[in-house]
Design a protein that fits this description.
Pfam families: adh_short
CATH architecture: 3-Layer(aba) Sandwich
CATH superfamily: NAD(P)-binding Rossmann-like Domain
CATH class: Alpha Beta
Strand content: 5-15%
Helix content: 40-55%
Largest sheet: 7 strands, parallel
Distance between the termini: 30 Å
Bound molecules: nicotinamide-adenine-dinucleotide
Number of strands: 7
Number of domains: 1
Radius of gyration: 18 Å
InterPro entries: NAD(P)-bd_dom_sf, SDR_fam
Family: Belongs to the short-chain dehydrogenases/reductases (SDR) family.
Structural class: alpha/beta
Protein name: SDR family NAD(P)-dependent oxidoreductase
Shape: globular
Length: 264
């Protein structure tokens, strides 16, 4: 099903999961549009992919995806460069923490930070879907949103006696709940165009946002039935499955969390 004429757009491509997704898609033969605010990471990823897969086209765009103007401009650049895109992966996100790395109690979340998390994690998904929709190939384009288990469970607390133990705060969890819900609405609306919209909800993935201190990881592993954190490669495996699923799974959120949370 994959051919070298396929093109994928990956947001947050400079981060841990985004880098893994981008490298994997390049290996499958996709041309890539990699988007992030972190220019150095984007440049490093672009060089790595072009070194490993010299025949791929890789367009690196430094874009703040919370800005409608920047997203519109990016969609124009992509439309001019590629015939159309096959996959849009909305992966960028932030999870603010206290300076010691722990969860911010809900009552201590700054009002401005609430807005920033909502704009980065949720509004950006809406903007990317809205302004890239016309660039997605009809009957071929697919959208995959990276949500979080916390979007279903709510955020964590500081004791692993109460599920879930997590450093994610209330604004992060609420934003990811929005991503899961938005996935359902867009899936219904985009079904007429044969464009499936899926979400992947990781639990705790090592690296990236999952760079935690030793004691936190120990407590976390005690709560997870497999006693393991997830890996970016496991997110990629789920992505692979979704990319072969057609319309049958549109609107679904797949949980990838080693048995930490099982359910809707
Ligand atoms: N790592 C985990 O444990 C975990 C668990 C559940 C869900 N997730 C989700 O997976 C996704 C990737 O997480 P990660 O662990 O790779 O994190 P990461 O911090 O390594 O990567 C996130 C990337 O998003 C980029 N980004 C942030 N704001 C942006 C903006 N306004 N415009 C463009 N780019 C922006 C960052 O620069 C960064 O490169 C996120 O949506 C996250 O919420 C991660």
């Amino acid at each position: 099903m994959h051919s070298e004429h396929f093109t994928a757009v990956v947001t947050g491509a400079g981060g841990t999961i985004g880098t893994c997704i981008s490298s994997h898609l390049a290996g499958l033969g996709y041309n890539l549009v990699i988007i992030d605010t972190h220019k150095n990471n984007l440049d490093a990823l672009q060089s790595k992919i072009q070194r490993e897969y010299p025949e791929r086209q890789v367009l690196a765009l430094t874009v703040n995806i919370t800005s409608p103007q920047e997203v519109i401009q990016a969609s124009r650049v992509v439309q001019n460069r590629f015939y159309g895109i096959d996959v849009l992966i909305n992966n960028a996100g932030i999870s603010p923490k206290l300076s010691n790395g722990m969860r911010i109690p809900a009552l201590s979340i700054d009002d401005d930070e609430w807005d920033l998390v909502m704009e980065t994690n949720l509004k950006s998904v809406f903007l990317m879907c809205k302004y890239f929709f016309d660039v997605l190939k009809r009957d071929k384009g697919k959208i995959v949103n990276i949500a979080s288990m916390m979007g279903v469970t709510g955020s964590g607390v500081d004791t692993n006696q109460i599920f879930p133990y997590s450093v994610s705060a209330a604004h992060y969890s609420a934003s990811k709940a929005g991503v899961i819900n938005l996935t359902k609405s867009l899936a219904r609306e985009f079904s007429e165009s044969n464009v499936p919209v899926y979400a992947i909800a990781p639990g705790a993935v090592s690296g990236g946002m999952g760079k935690f201190d030793e004691s936190f990881i120990k407590n976390l592993k005690e709560q997870i039935p497999s006693h393991q954190l997830g890996t970016p490669e496991e997110i990629v495996n789920t992505l692979n499955f979704l990319l072969t699923s057609g319309m049958s799974l549109t609107g679904q959120t797949l949980h990838v969390n080693h048995g930490w949370f099982m359910g809707g």
